[in-house]
Amino acid sequence: MAGVPDISPAETWEALKADPDAVLIDVRTDAEWNFVGLPDIADLAKQPLLIPWQMYPSMEVNRAFAEHLRKAGLTEANSLYFICRSGARSLSAGMAAQAAGFPRAFNVADGFEGPVDAEGHRGSIAGWKASGLPWRQR
């Protein structure tokens, strides 16, 4: 696979539903998980794997990221769908995963909240929430 392909939130949902080995990995920070919310994939008998790409509050890259993927039991056979706030950190995480031997890495386009709208708010234009997919507060 050349590069990390972008995949829409709706396509991600369908892939998670169809593939028992597909995993959603939320790479945001614990603060974002706690205060913004999480994708809710319980209807698919799954839970998102929470592994931060950057560590809050310093926002340094998590140097143990690939190790965390392995410790979670993931292998090259898993399809990994990375999601962050808007799609930037998840793309970096997907590239790191591919470099670490996980070839089936995908970036959830527009992330959980998507870009800001005309009023400067996220969550209404694009992304997981704006696509009407299930989510919950932690």
UniProtKB/TrEMBL annotation:
What InterPro entries has UniProt attached to this entry? Rhodanese-like_dom, Rhodanese-like_dom_sf, STR4-like
Recorded superkingdom = Bacteria
PROSITE patterns in UniProt:
RHODANESE_3
Rhodanese domain location is 18-124
For this entry, the protein name equals: Sulfurtransferase
- Could you tell me which Pfam families the record lists for this protein? Rhodanese
Q: Which Gene3D superfamilies match?
A: Rhodanese-like domain
